[in-house]
Amino acid sequence: MTVQTVKILSELVNTPVEKLLTQMKDAGLPHKSVDQEVSDVEKQILLNYLKRQHGDAGETQGEQRITLQRRTKSTLSAGGGGKTVNVAVKKKRTYVKRPDADDALTREQELLAEQRAAEEQARIEAEKAREEAAKLEAEQAAKAKAEAEEQARKEAERLNSERNAEQRATKQAEPNDSDMGADKLVENSKETKTNRKVSQAPGESKPSAPAPKGKKAAAPARDKEKARGRQPDSKRSGRISLNDDDEFSRRGGKRKLKRPSKQEHGFQKPTAPMIHEVALPESITVAELADKMAIKAAEVIKVMFKMGAMATINQTIDRDTATLVVEEMGHKAKFIDENAVENDMLEAIDYEGEAIKRAPVVTVMGHVDHGKTSLLDYIRTTRVAAAESGGITQHIGAYHVETDHGMVSFLDTPGHAAFTSMRARGAQATDIVILVCAADDGVMPQTIEAIQHSRAAGVPIVVAMTKVDKEGADIDKVKNELVAQEVVPEEWGGDIQFVGVSAKSGEGIDALLEAVLLQAEVLELTAVPSAPGRGVVVESRLDRGRGSVATVLVQNGTLKKGDIVLAGLQMGRVRALLDENGKAVMSAGPSIPVEILGLDGTPESGEEFIVVADERKAREVANFRQGKYREVRFARQHSAKLENLFSGMGADEVGTLNIVLKADVRGSLEALIKSLNDLSTDEVKVNIISSGVGGITETDATLALASEAVIFGFNVRADSSAKQLIDRESVDLRYYSVIYNIIDDVKAALSGMLSPDLREDIVGTAEVRDVFRSPKFGLVAGCMVLEGTVFRNESIRVLRDNVVIYEGELESLRRYKDAVNEVRQGIECGIGVKNYNDVKAGDKIEVFKTIEVARTL
Length: 857
Prior knowledge:
Helices cover 37% and strands 29% of the residues. The protein contains 22 helices and 39 strands. A hairpin with a 2-residue loop joins strand 13 and strand 14 (406-412). The longest helix has 71 residues, at 101-171. It is flat and about 130 Å long. The two termini are 73 Å apart.
C-alpha cells in the first residue's frame, strides 16, 4: 500500500497545504497536520468528494444514464401557389439517475473504518509475536546456562576421578617415571582448566554436550598414555582435534566428532575498509583492474564515468588512467616492471672482453641532387645513382669501403623531404656525418634539416662542398650560409672541417677521407669483437624467394651465421649473411653492414638488434613486445574514437581517399605513409587502410575491392591471382617507382574531391537615367548601358552612391516595346527590377555571373 503525507500530496496536486487540509476536513477525513499519512483509500474518498462538489462524479459513483430520441414531422406553407414543405424535427434528451450522496459517503466511511481496524489488528499481532520471541529467547538462554553448569559439574567430577586413578597408577611406577608423569599430569590439568576458561569466556561458543555413559574410561586412558610419554590414539593416527573440549565416541569401530549443540559460522563482516595494493602494468583492461581491487567491474565503470572517461568492461586503458581510478577508489597503485623478462635476458648477455679500434660509420646527408650518391660512387667506383629510379636515392644504402687510409662504412640517406625519418635514423646510427652542400646551390631546406638531425644525435660534422669544378660555384657563399646555421669552418675560428670535392674529377676525395679518419681518431672508436653481435636495423624488405631480408649494421661484437637474432618485434635464426655486393659471408664484425635472412617478419627501420643465446627467451620477449604494442595501439585508437565521438556532429562530410599501399622496403613505406598523410586537410583526407612490404597479393586486392580503395605499388608488382581479381573487378591499380609521382597523383585526386570556390564576374553596368510607371509592369527604369552587356537571366545589384542597396533579379528587359535577352554597351533600355520599387535616377544596376572555380591543395 502506497503511503504519502499531506505535504507530499499537496505538491503532487499543486494545491496549497491549508486548502488541502480544509478539503480533507470537509470530506470527513481526520487529518489536521501536514505530516500525517494519507492512504490510497483516503485519497479516493477525497477525490470522490471533490467530484461531487464540482458536479463530475460521473459513472464512477454508479450513475445511470437513459437517452430518449423523438422525431416529429410538420408541414409548412411555402408561399403562394399552394406549395408546401415537409419539415422533420429530431429531439434528443438524456436522463441521469445519480446515487444517493449520503449512501456513498457512508460506504466510504465504513471502508475507512475497516482499513483502520485491520491495521490495528496487524499491529497487535506483531507486538504479540515480538513478546513471544523474547520469552522464547530468555528460556533458551536459561536452559543453556543450566546445561553449562551441569557440564562444568560433571567435568569436575571426571577430573577428580582421573586424579585418583592417576595417583593409584603412580604408586606402582618408578620414582623418575612417577615424577615425570605427575609433572605432565599437572601441566595437562592446567591446560585443561585454561582451555575451559577460554571456551567459557563471554562471546565464545557454548561447551559441547557431555559424553554418553560408559565412555569416560577412554579419557583416563589417554591421560595415562600421556604420563608414560606416548601420544594418544587420535594424534598417533594423524588426526588433529579442533578443541580441547571435543569428545569422541566409538560406534562400530569408527571415531566420530560430537557436534556442538548450536552451530555458528566463524566468519565476521570486516568493520574497516580493505585497502589493496594494486600492481599496474603499462596497459590493463577494466575487468582485470576490477579483479585486482576485488570489486565489480560495474563499480569501476561508474567511477570512470564520473571522472569523465567512458569505458567498457573489455576496454584497455593506460597506466595513468588506471592509477587515477585506483586512487579514486581508495586503494594504492604500484607500478610493475613489465620489461623484467627483457631486462633479465639483456643482463645475461656478456659484452665483456678486449676492446679494439674499429672503423667509423659515416652517414652522407644533404639536399636532394647535391651529389651525395655520386660522391660515394667515385669512392666505391660503382654506379649506384644510375640504378636508382629517377636518379635519386630512395633507400638507405649501407656498405663499407677499404681505402688507402683505412676501412670506412658508409650510409647514404635520401635527400627528398619525404625521407625525413630515414635521415634521422641515419644520424642516430652513425659516428660521423658528411654534410654535402653543392657549391652552386648553397644551403637548401634539407641541408638545414640534416644539420639539425646531426646536432640532435650529437654527431660531429665534416662538410663536403661538391661541384667545385662547375661554373657558378661559389665556395665563400656556401661558407657564409653555413656559418649562419652555426656551422663554422676551422679557418674561420670554428671546429668544422670544410673540404671541396668533385665527384667527376675526383678532386678533394683523398682530403675528405683523411678528414673523416682524423675525426675518427679524435672519437677513439672501439668495440669488442668477441662479444655477441649487437647493432641497428638500417632497412628491411620482403623478398619473394628469400622471405624477410633485413639490412643491419653491426655496432659491437660479431654477428655469425646461425645466431639467434632479436630485432624489435621479430626474431629468428640467421640462415645467411650477405655483404653489400650480394656475396655470402660467415660473420660480420663491428662497423660492417650486412643483409641477414631468417627473421619471421620485417622489423622496423631503426630498431636495435641483439644476438640471444636462448631461442625460447628470444621468442618470449618478441611475443611480449608484440602483445604490448598491440595493447597500446588499441588503447590509443579507442581513446581517439571516444575523444572524437561528438566532434564530427554537425560538420560537413569529409571526403576520403582510401589507399592500399605496398612498397619494396620498410624505409620507403614509412616515407610514403608520412608524405601521404601530410596531404590531408579538414575537407579531404587520405586513409591508408592497409600497408606493407612485399608484392601485391590477392588479399590486398580483395581488401581494396571491399573498401573501394586504390592500390599503389611502389617498386612492387601484383602476382597472377591478384592480377586476375583486379582485371575481373576493375580495381584501380597503379605502379610507381619515384615517390614524387605518387605524391603528385594523390594531390591531384584530393584536389578533385574539394568543393569548388564560387567567384563573381561583373558582366555589365547600366545607369538609371529616368523612372517610369507602367500599368502593366509597374516601376520601370530607363537606363543606359555603360559597360559590358546586360543579360535578362543573370543576377543584379542596385548601387546608390557606390553602395549596394539591393540584390536580386531582373523582371523584364526591353528595347522600346520589344522584350530582349541582352543589351550591349552604349544602348538604352528599360529594366524592371523584380520585387523592388525604390529605383531612382542616378542609381547603377550591376549585372554579374557566379562561376565555380576548381580548388587545389
